[in-house]
Amino acid sequence: MNGFAQFTQWWLSDEFRSAYYATFIVTNYFLVRELVKRIERWDVIDLLWKLLVIGISGISFTFLFQLVEDQMFEQNLFPYVKALSESVSLYAVLIFSLSTIFIFRKLILYQKNKRKVWSWNILQGLFFLGLARLFIGLDSVTGPSSPAEFNANFMQLDATGIYTSVIFLLFLGISLFLSGNINWSAYLNYQQKIRSLLLLFVIILLFFAFYLMFPFHAFPSTDGAFILLTRRHMIYGMIFLFPLIYSLLSGLVLTFNLQTSSIFEQRSIELATIQRINQSIQANLDTDEILRTLLDASLLTSNATAGWIETIDSTTREFKRTLSYSKGVTKEEIEYLRIREDLTFTVLDSGKHIHIRNLRKHRNFRYAKTRIRSLLALPILTSKHPVGVVYLINELSGSFEEESILSLVSLTEQSGISIENAELVARSIDLEIYREQLKIAKTFQKQILPQTLPGTDQIEFFVKSQEADEIGGDFYDVTQRGNTYKIAVGDVSGKGTTAAFYMAETKGIFQALTQLDIGVRDFILNANKTLSHCLRKGTFMTLTYLHIDMDDLGVELLRAGHCETLYYNSKKDELCSLKTGGPGLAIVRDDSFSNYTPEPDRFLANPGDLLILFTDGIIEAHNFEREEFGMERLREIAFRLRRTDSQRIAETLVQQVKAFTGGIIDDDYSILVIRFLQGKQISINTVDKNDENQGNRA
Amino acid sequence: MMKIREIGHEGYVTVQPSGELDANSSILMDEKIQELVDREVYRLHIDCSKLQYISSAGLGVFISFLDELHERGGKFVFSNMSDNVRKVFDLLGLAQLVTIVESGSQVEEAIL
After folding, report:
1. Which H or E run includes A75?
2. I need a surface site. Which of A113, A485, A529, A597 has the fewest CB within 10 A?
3. What is the pLDDT of residue A605?
């Protein structure tokens, strides 16, 4: 044999032809895979369109070449044209099928998971195993000489047959499994579904067209060509099979989903609306605004043709209700329905919505002259109080679906929460304002109490006080009038703001009274008379009031319900309590008060003597065992400190009280220490009310 | 938390607060006495045997009703005061304004 004949023989040999086909298919396989990978936009319609374009161009080329082939049937060039036409046809089928496979792969691996990717890899593996079939069994049989023989052979399960069948069946199984992944279809709206369906339909048609134009006649011949055909058949079968199954199943799924898709779509629109509304409601801090949005949203997301909101005023116990907003319904209509049956309180009491499917079948609305057929009433509640009820109506019966009722319920619940949030924010703003005002009040109160106490080389005053809350009812004042010091230490009953306001009032009264040159007892009688008019019933004031005449150090002291005063007599070196006094101020509000009020203590003090005045915050301070600090401890400490200066005495006493209670004194307290001096140094003491700045002596 | 017991008698009512009578619980006491006054009970016996502590606000409740009871020919009688409570009454001068007896057996005599 010459070289050419050898070459021809080799060229025509099965091995070469198989290798040629395998290379051809594999090359195109990877080519198409790459091309499809480059498509970045994930859009079902767009992908299917691309497929369609490829398919139509393929089929057109095939058709065109077959036309030419037919035209040339009688001519010499015919065999070449025929070969060319067949190649084009095969190539078109291959490219179209591969494109379909890889585009479907994109669809299948949408929302990919491990299982899908693995299945896909197996499918790909099986495909290559199918390709290997091209090289198997080349020498075993010469092959069937006719399709009939082929069919007969096909049933015989020799090794090649088993291989073929197993691969083919596995491929079929995996294809079916993968074809189940059509979840992309769920994300299409109705229109998109229709379009994809049409596109898929055309694609399936194209497959049939390709099948009809498939150049089967290119294969059958004698000497083993049929085997090759079956081998190629298998590969082409595989290439055809998967996309065909997938398009058919997708088409079916889409067809069945068409009906539900409109419902899903409406639902998803509803959800989107609700979400948008929720956001706007949440951001809203105005209750009225929230309610208006709620009504608009409820109408938008349900089948309701009209609706209204009734709110109730829960601040009063009467639960007065008002029609807040209405749309598409008149006041008279609402009123008419309410007379038949008042649903508002039923709904609010139960906290659950009421749905009347058909008013004509409802016991109370049966004979109502109204266009309304179905009605939905939903409660708007906060965790603390009911807000109102949303009413939605429709002129058709049974127009509210369970689905939309559910979303309406969540919408009204959300509104309730938002209203509560709005209220909380408003309240915290109020609180902040109050706190600011309290701060201002405290500053004012500090100004009411004297910032500096007078002092000379003959007498020294030191006061230490603190209000239990922000502000309190303790009061003290030292006024100099001529050669007389007028000193008051008192406590308005109660704590906090009320006490503080009364204390401020007291200050004015006392200031006025100290201008009168009256005795200590008259001062107290007058103060009682005035305060009886000013203080609310049940509120009273305790007071210790004294005059010190600096000419002879004469002291005149009277108690009105207030704690006793400690007096240290330096000559006798003894500490005693001054207790003379009557009831607190504004307790007995008539003239009989004077009957209970005795004449004051009068005595002459000596230089070196001490007077310690205080309020009940000191002696009533208690420890964790609820034991009171008491007078005895106070006396002991005062006696021990009798020779120290007034500031030291006041500060040590407070320290001792705090040590006793464990750090806190939970009531207002004040201590005023008066020391009579020998008359040498001049000192003015500033008031030190801040505990942290102790030892800060002026 | 303070509790208030009410015991009716021929001609007067016994009110027995237990616990601490402070600014918070004084509201309850105030309501109680107001309710009795509304029922035209003007002779009130306050049994202090279970009263542990009384604050100025607590005293304020009794003070606020002093005049009204007096005007209507009634009165407060306090009994079984602990030293603590007694001290506060003395200090404030209330001991002069109300009747205070040692034990419950003396109440009837003092109140009617």
Report:
1. none
2. A113
3. 94
